[in-house]
Specification:
4-stranded mixed sheet; globular; alpha/beta; single chain; Peroxisomal Thiolase, Chain A, domain 1; 2 domains
Length: 323
């Protein structure tokens, strides 16, 4: 008997406080026009003082559990993709487990920056289809505002805070039908660490550090690597990439998304975009966008959905699933 990992609910959470481009133009030498034209971002959400990544993650996870019709007791695996953990240890997943009241199974974090959710989804799928675990919360959650240098206009205008979550369940192939994760593709090229990193850490500076990015160099890598990952993940599953119903990209830059759409000959109205209102929420952006597509009725049961991410490392990857 063969198992599939099926998304049976999703959730999202955005902090209340909104920071517009106009607000940012009062802090650094930038303008609403520059940010919108270069990135597509209009505003982003920022966590309140004392609001932690685990709080955002727990909100999104509770919503995903409600959507799936499951209780904390039904979960036996929690994976949190985050670059901004509450503490150096224990994992944010362990803290989320306690906040939700989950008492069984495993919990751990995954660190692949903006590709984190793709890494987490792929990992969870392997745990579930091996039969070792039954039902997972896969969460992308970030308080990226805490690692921004608010005097660096090249980075502070790009990012926002938020969390998104999937309930992923192991189902017998006969029960799952067409639904479930079909394929995933994960890559890293560690030679490109210097393009996007945080200039601090436990073992180097004993401080948290701030995001540093050579934006235009990352931009140049993005379209080619993302398109290649998407084409591979589809072709390896015997599917033409143009047969997908929905494209749920990591929301780093509207121009990158448009470049990928053009390169792969997809249609603009297949894209679920949240970038204007959320900015780049790193590991949270893919499940946040997926949740948007489900809640506004675009992503329906059995639809073929292609997710992609790219971030520090450089890491990049893609995942193909039937909703
Ligand atoms: O999620 C992880 C992966 N991250 C990404 O994929 C991000 C990829 N990179 C990007 O999205 C873009 O490179 C950025 C949006 C970060 C920057 O856009 P760009 O078109 O590549 O601009 P640039 O870095 O080449 O800078 C162009 C100019 C520079 O001025 P000069 O040297 O031409 O005089 C910058 O100093 O824009 C200037 N600039 C700004 N001006 C106003 C940089 N940031 C700003 C700003 N406001 N916020």
């Amino acid at each position: 008997m063969s198992l599939k990992a099926v998304v049976c609910g999703c959730g999202a959470y955005l902090p209340e406080q909104v920071l517009t481009n106009h607000d940012l133009a009062k802090k650094v030498d930038t303008s609403d026009e520059w940010i919108r034209e270069r990135t597509g971002i209009r505003e982003r959400h920022v966590a309140a003082d004392g609001e932690k990544t685990s709080d955002l993650a727990a909100h999104a996870a509770r919503q995903a559990l409600d959507a799936a019709g499951y209780a904390p007791d039904d979960i036996d695996l929690i994976i949190v993709a985050t670059t901004t953990p509450d503490l150096t240890f224990p994992s944010t997943a362990a803290i989320v487990q306690a906040k939700l009241g989950v008492r069984e199974g495993a919990a751990f974090d995954i660190q692949a920056v903006c590709t984190g959710f793709i890494y987490a989804l792929s990992t969870a799928e392997k745990f579930l289809t091996s039969g070792q675990h039954k039902r997972a919360l896969v969460i992308g959650a970030e308080t990226f505002s805490r690692i921004l240098d608010w005097t660096d206009r090249a980075t502070c205008v790009l990012f926002g805070d938020g969390a998104g979550a999937f309930v992923l369940e192991a189902q017998e192939e006969a029960d799952a039908g067409k639904r479930g994760v079909i394929n995933s593709y994960l890559r890293c090229d560690g030679r490109l660490v210097d393009l996007l990193y945080v200039d601090g850490g436990v073992s180097s500076t004993q401080s948290t550090g701030h995001v540093r990015m050579q934006g235009n160099k990352v931009f140049r890598e993005a379209v080619m690597r993302i398109s290649q990952a998407m084409e591979w993940v589809a072709a390896d599953a015997g599917i033409d990439v143009r047969a997908i119903d929905w494209f749920v990209p990591h929301q780093a830059n509207e121009r990158i998304i448009k470049g990928v759409v053009k390169k792969l000959d997809l249609a603009t109205d297949q894209v679920i975009s949240t970038i204007a209102g959320q900015g780049n929420t790193s590991a949270a952006s893919i499940p946040l966008a997926y949740h948007q597509g489900v809640s506004d009725g675009r992503i329906k049961k059995d639809d073929l959905v292609l997710l992609e991410g790219m971030g520090g490392g450089l890491t990049w990857g893609a995942a193909l699933l039937r909703a």
